[in-house]
Amino acid sequence: MMENDLIAKKDLLEVAHISYGQLYRWKRKKLIPDEWFIRKSTFTGQETFFPKQKILDRIEKIISLKDDLSLDELADMFSPNPQSVSLTVNQIIERHIVSLMTVDVLFPEEERNKSLSFEAILSANIVEKVLKSGEVNREESKQLYTFLINNYGKLYGQPFYLLIFRKLGVTSFLLISKQENYYVDDLTNEVFKLDILQSIEELKSLLSKGA
Amino acid sequence: MIKTTQAADLIISGSGSTSGGIFRDVKISGSGKVSGDIECNQFQTSGSSRINGNVKSENMKISGSSKILGSVTSDTMDISGSTTIEGNADVKTIHISGFSRIKGNMKGERVSLSGGIKLYGSLEADSVQLKGGFMIQDLLNADEITIGIGGDCKVKEIGCGTLKVTKKTFGLDILGKLFSKHLITDQIEGDDIYLEYTKAKTVRGNRVTIGTGCEIDHVEYKDHFSKVGNAMVKHSEKI
User: InterPro entries, per this entry (chain B) (predicted)?
Assistant: First the structure.
């Protein structure tokens, strides 16, 4: 997998034609996330490696934009800060965050130019996953969307699962902290399970890629 | 900071304690204790003060001995005397002289430190000036760094645009050797590097000058490398 390919700092400077000073400045200004600096010991001592594709893409973007934007503006752009995200329904389709199929279910035609908050985009993105699983119908997925939006604030940044149960043809949704145990009766089936924090991370990376 | 214009001043002189809050100016002299977070325009303390919370301010001036249990955010911070900050310091212009300890990370634009500083995290700024002795337990990262050795200087790693490390020597070289103070670090990476009296495992840069009093295991350079005086470099490599 490309994601696992690493590049050593030395080689990165060579390939990307940048200097140590630039690299450290971009690290400082949070243009390059700290998690991308991976320390490994080699026979010459400690060396730093980066996820190759990610860092090369990021540097290319920084270089192509740095003449037009200040470093702080660039940092804002790369930071997947939920508060600062706002995209219209049409934009989330264009950027492949949510497909037209899901949008058709959730948003009436006249709302397509309305801008969506991070919560709304995340909820739509989760609804899409659920819809694709085939475990809920269109009406239920609208309810799920409202349920997620209303409860998002309570669980942001914490490890939560979304669980969907079905009992005798009736569907219910549950958001539960990962540490909690739960028990259901014999007639209730768990039909869907999703790690919310993981979905948030995935969405953030989708959003920063398009940035 | 609009909301503080409506607020009152907090003045403690002699011994007093109060809870935190939003103030216009905070002045503590004598021994003052604040239990809670403080937000204000001007923060001034002399004597011994203890803040059991975070401080958010525009200008801070601390003299005497003072302890802040939380983090500090400000435009300017001027510390003399001994101060302990248990959290992070996120301040545009930092000037510290005298003995201070910062348990978290320090982040700023212009930072100048002299006297004995102990920083348990990293220091990130546009320009950094260090004088005297210091200890930085994590990365020192800045565009421009100047270090004047005047005591034990220890930093885990340095990453920078330009770095200049110098030491003033007095008279006889023998004396200098007896009381030899060095900058000790694992690794230095930068564009332009000039070192004196530095002990490092690895130095990587575009243009590297290793000056007198240096002991470097490994130098990697791109454009230029030179050795001055009695510098010791075990191994150098052009890449």
Answer: BacA/B
CB-nearest to B141 from A10, A19, A24 is A24
| Helix/strand number for chain A, H first, E second | 9, 8
Q: Answer yes or no: is B112 within a domain.
A: yes
Question: What's the total number of domains in chain B?
Answer: 2
Out of B142, B162, B202, the one facing A45 most closely (by C-beta) is B202
Distance CA B42, CA B61 (A): 8
- CA end-to-end span of chain B: 51
DSSP H helical ranges for A52-171: 52-65, 71-78, 89-94, 100-106, 118-133, 138-155
Listed residues B37, B61, B76: the one ending a domain? B76
For A28, the closest of B124, B162, B206 (CB atoms) is B124
For residue B56, what are the domain limits? 1-76
Is B222 in the same domain as B173?
yes
Q: Does A19 touch chain B (CB under 8 A)?
A: yes
Q: What is the architecture of the domain spanning A2-78?
A: Orthogonal Bundle (1.10)
In a domain, B85, yes or no: no
Helix axes A196-210, A118-133, angle to 10 degrees: 120
Nearest to B67 by CA among B54, B79, B56, B83: B83
Spell out the per-residue pLDDT of chain B, length 239, in tens.
445 556 789 888 888 888 888 999 999 988 889 999 999 999 999 888 999 999 999 999 999 889 999 999 999 999 998 899 999 999 999 999 988 999 999 999 999 999 889 999 999 999 999 998 999 999 999 999 999 998 899 999 999 999 999 987 665 555 555 567 899 999 999 999 999 999 999 999 999 999 999 999 999 999 999 999 899 999 999 98
| Shortest Cα distance, chain A CAs vs residue B179, angstroms | 30
Q: Do B187 and A27 touch (CB under 8 A)?
A: no
Q: What angle do CA B37, B39, B42 make, to 5 degrees?
A: 130
Between strands A160-167 and B32-39, the pairing is unpaired
Contacting residues of B for A45, CB less than 8 Å apart: 186-187, 201-202, 218
> Which of A19, A20, A23, A25 to probe the B interface (max B CBs under 10 A)?
A20
Task: Sketch the domain layout of chain A as residue ranges.
Answer: 2-78, 84-210
**Judgement on whether residues B56 and B109 belong to the same structural domain of the protein:** no
| Residue B9 is assigned to a structural domain of this protein | yes
Residues B30 and B146 in one domain: no
The predicted-structure confidence for A55-105, as pLDDT tens digits, reads as follows 998 898 889 888 877 888 777 777 655 656 778 888 888 888 898 888 888
Q: Are residues B50 and B123 in the same domain?
A: no
In a domain, B197, yes or no: yes
A52 CA: distance to closest CA in chain B (Å): 20
